[in-house]
Amino acid sequence: MLIAVDIGNTNIVLGFLEGTKIIATYRMTTTSSHTSDEYGLMLNEFLHMSDYSDSDVEDVIISSVVPNVMHSFRAAIIKFFGVDPIVVGPGIKTGINIRIDDPRSLGADCLCDCVGAFGLHGGPLLVLDFGTATTYNYVDATGTITAGLITVGIRSGAAALSNKTAQLPEVEITRPTSVFATDTKSAMQAGLFYNFLGGVERTIAQFRSEVGKRFTVIATGGLGRIFEGETDSIDIYDPNLIFKGMRMIYDRNINH
């Protein structure tokens, strides 16, 4: 069994894979203060919840955009499972070309998303990841990432709204029932949702205008499910896209 680990700014998400089948996924809060023992104990607990033991773990692959978590997490993998994990980064084989000004600046999570999307659907395509930040990456028909866009994530926008205004509370990010809000909480939720959705649609429209030909829009990320089915601008929503990409990357690198 392969464990795929996506270490993001807000959450660490785990995928347990047997072949290409994703058996289970788990999510924990990203905390740089956790020790390797704490991470190891949490990983073991998730394994037991899925009826696995540490001896079932054949290998681990990690995608991380949080460098200060990597030391403890990698140490946990080595200590508890006896394997040195593959880390998505420079020098790893992905099957995807990167033609932006600084290829090393592309987040490992974005790279894995693009690998998964292109491997499953071919190109051209636009990969949209709803995370702490919202990212767009365009992959052409040859499997080359030629452009990217980064903007604020909806949860980050909500946090900024409550943190910078004295009388606005923190609110859950959710799909509103109506734009006709009658209280502060629902007014914030509806405002965030429709404002963000409009920005997504306008951004995709601009990509279409500048590309000048048809491409598929693949969305992923935990917050993407809020917008699933709410817009014709997104063709496919795949919450496990990153794990599928990591599986493909793993297969390209193991025993090579």
Overview of this protein structure:
There is one protein chain. With 256 residues, this protein is of the alpha/beta class. It folds into 2 domains: 2-87, Nucleotidyltransferase, domain 5, CATH 3.30.420; 97-246, ATPase, nucleotide binding domain (Nucleotidyltransferase, domain 5, 2-Layer Sandwich). The protein has 6 helices and 11 strands. The chain has helices at residues 36-49, 67-81, 108-121, 154-163, 184-211, 241-253; strands at residues 2-7, 11-18, 21-29, 59-64, 86-87, 97-98, 125-130, 133-139, 144-152, 216-220, 236-237. A 6-stranded mixed sheet has the order 6-9-8-7-10-11. It has a 5-stranded mixed sheet with strand order 3-2-1-4-5, sandwiched between helices. A hairpin with a 3-residue loop joins strand 1 (2-7) and strand 2. Helix 1 (36-49) crosses helix 2 (67-81) and helix 3 packs across helix 6 (241-253). The chain is globular. It starts with a strand and ends with a helix. This is Type III pantothenate kinase. Homodimer. It catalyses: (R)-pantothenate + ATP = (R)-4'-phosphopantothenate + ADP + H(+).
How is the CATH topology of the largest domain named? Nucleotidyltransferase, domain 5
Q: How large is the radius of gyration?
A: 19 Å
**Total count of strands:** 11
Coarse morphology: globular
The biggest sheet amounts to: 6 strands, mixed
Helical segment tally? 6
Assign the CATH superfamily of the largest domain.
ATPase, nucleotide binding domain
Which percent range fits the helix content?
A: 25-40%
Poorly predicted regions:
none
Mean pLDDT: 91
CATH architecture of the largest domain: 2-Layer Sandwich
Secondary-structure element string: EEEHEHEEHEEEHHEEH
Give the tally of structural domains: 2
Keywords: ATP-binding, Coenzyme A biosynthesis, Cytoplasm, Kinase, Metal-binding, Nucleotide-binding, Potassium, Transferase
Family: Belongs to the type III pantothenate kinase family.
Protein name: Type III pantothenate kinase
Catalytic activity: (R)-pantothenate + ATP = (R)-4'-phosphopantothenate + ADP + H(+)
